[in-house]
Amino acid sequence: MLSEAELIKLQSERQYFIENGAEASLFQWLRSKGTNFTCYVEYLNSLNREQEINNKIDIVRTIIYALHKPFQFTFFYWTLLIFILHKFNFKKPVMKIILAHLILRTIGDMINKFGDLFNHYYSNVPTTDEQGNVSYSCRYDSPSTEMHPFKWFLTRQIGCIFWCLGEIVADWYPLFRTRAVAKDQSSIKIVYVTCGIFNFSKILLILYHYALSPKELYDEHGVYNKAKVDIFYFTYWIIQLIIIYASVIYDYSVYYVIKKSFSRLSLLEHGFLKRFKSVSEFRILISAVVCVIFLPIVSVTIIIKFYYYYRYGYHDLEFSFDEIRLSINNVQYFMIFIDQILLIHSSSNSTTTSSGPSNNNSYTTINVSRGISKLNFSKIINNSTNSSQYYSRKNSSSISPISPSTAVNSSIIYKNNGYSTIPNTSTIINNSIIKNGSFNERKRSEDIRNNSISERKRNEDIRNNTISRENHTNNNYVNNNTNNINSNNNDNYYNYNEANNNSNNGYNYNNSSNDQRNINNNDYNNNIVGTATSYNSNASNNSNINVSNIRSPNFGMLNSYYENDKFKF
User: Fold this and answer.
1) DSSP structure string for 154-220
2) Cα 246 to Cα 251: distance, rounded to the nearest angstrom
3) CB of 150 closer than 8 Å to CB of 118
4) Could you tell me if 376 and 568 are in contact, meaning their C-beta atoms sit under 8 angstroms apart?
5) Distance between alpha carbon 35 and the CA centroid of its chain, in Å?
6) What pLDDT, in 10s, does the model give residues 386-428?
7) How many other CB atoms sit within 10 Å of the CB of residue 498?
């Protein structure tokens, strides 16, 4: 119960009430609290202390709910998922569309929730007795948006702008998809036209909300003008129906243009789910089909509503199917996120398939660099099967002179498990010999004429052409069942000893007059503890041998062949 002092204080708020049909401007209607000041005083007198506190709690709760509204947005977590999948790369057009759609529509939702702060509007309610006399009682609340002038302005005239603009931005997604994939760019004009019609229908909806001014919500007696509001919604539903029809036409035009560009849509013989997962354009068609299914329901309800109004004068019949309208409206936006997820999934599968090893051969690229020199072997034949053949660790093999075009002292590995065709030529590989699929290992050093290749375990004095591998910073390990190539700080050189040219620390080829290079000494130490380079050649079902790095000071072509294979570096 209000005290006398409080009642006197309330008189200062009378200016916020438009009573007795007084002329008021739009601004006065927006700031008004009602059309009957006496009703306002009665309401405050009816409140006890607990109800007053509860009203204050409702205000705080409404503000918190409004700020929390973005997290309740239907597409918030879908949007977050797309952001994660695209790694928050907002330079992509699709990311800009989805971000703008999120921001604009959530702002509209927040504005709509803030409208709940205006749940009371103190107005008159007419009552007619049996003699036809009209009296007025008080109404304190405003259960519908249209019953509070400022709430109508805030949620429908302002909030609708953000809702519709957010939808318009998202409506461009099929247009961009079509423009990106269509071969005949001239045929896209029809998509631009239908998209423009679709967008204009929503702009028309924005403008139409301003046709009902907050000044017209109450008549001269301060009574809610429901008849005028009902007439407003007749036209409103016609515009909504136009939007749905425009959406169907737009989606079909997109499908038509893309189908014209890609014959795979008509030739695809897979089932519905397969086409839905693999064909982006098919997903666009689905949204149009959903609209077509529910379109008759909305159309029939609007027709019936008009029939009863013009035939019987019934304007208060509740034929609203707003939930169905929202479902139809949101299908196309759900398809945006579904389409993006499936496109990313399809792209990921394609990348995995293309990068995975084949059943028969796998090709590995080895890049070994020193300064500006690069040794790039484009192929390593890794012909693997399930057979269990082992590298033969024997000491019997012949060393044949090899011409410069066929001698490749490099990282070429024939992984010959179950390899049916065995080469006839012996190829020198990292000072070892592979001949007829056998891996020949030499445990003792051999003295073959001029050149020697030795691996040192202790400090030895080697005078002429040697390969020094010291166990300091240049440690190259070749382990079993790995394909890792460890590049170290030291250098290995191909040194060609021409006439009057002496070189140390390298692979040394003595050139004779007939340009034939013979390797005179091939020393291979197997599993020597403490050596700089050790070869672990253990017998297993799948033997993988990795080799040490060879750096060439010259950038060029080293020709060799295994049958018809060429290796470039």
Assistant:
1) IIIIIHHHHHHHHHHHHHHHHHHHHHHH-S-GGGGHHHHHHHHHHHHHHHHHHHHGGGS-GGGSB-T
2) 9
3) yes
4) yes
5) 54
6) 333 333 333 334 344 444 433 333 333 333 333 333 344 434 4
7) 10
| CB-based contacts of 342, cutoff 8 Å, min separation 6 | 277, 278, 280, 283
Tell me the C-alpha to C-alpha distance, in Å, between residue 412 and each of 41, 244, 366: 97, 66, 10
Q: CB–CB of 95/105 below 8 Å?
A: no
Pair of tokens at residue 286: 């689905």
Q: How far apart are CA 558 and CA 569, in angstroms?
A: 7
- The pairs formed by 388-391 with CB atoms below 8 angstroms and a separation of 24 or more are 388/417, 388/541, 389/416, 389/417, 389/418, 389/437, 390/539, 390/540, 390/543, 391/438, 391/439, 391/537, 391/539, 391/543, 391/545
Look at the pTM and tell me if it is higher than 0.70.
Answer: no
Distance CA 110, CA 88 (A): 24
Q: How far is CA 101 from the centre of its chain?
A: 16
DSSP string covering 205-252, please?
Answer: HHHHGGGS-GGGSB-TTSBB-HHHHHHHHHHHHHHHHHHHHHHHHHHH
Enumerate long-range contacts of 358-367, CB under 8 Å, 24 or more apart. Answer: 364/483, 366/411, 366/485
pLDDT at 8: 86
pLDDT in tens, 105-161: 999 999 999 999 999 999 999 988 888 888 889 999 998 999 999 999 999 999 999
Residue given tokens 């010999």 in the structure block: 433
Amino acid at 79: T
* pLDDT (0 to 100) of residue 518: 37
Distance between CA atoms of residues 495 and 506, nearest Å: 6
The amino acid at residue 376 is N
**Contact (Cβ atoms closer than 8 angstroms) between residue 259 and residue 265:** yes
State whether residue 65 is helix, strand or coil: helix
93-114 and 49-72 are packed helices; what angle lies between their axes, rounded to 10 degrees?
Answer: 170
141 forms beta bridges with 120
Q: Chain centroid to CA 210: how far?
A: 39
Q: How far apart are CA 10 and CA 4, in angstroms?
A: 10
| Assigned token pair, 178 | 């079509």
Query: Cβ(442)–Cβ(395) under 8 Å?
Result: yes
Helix-then-strand count for the chain, H and E:
14, 14
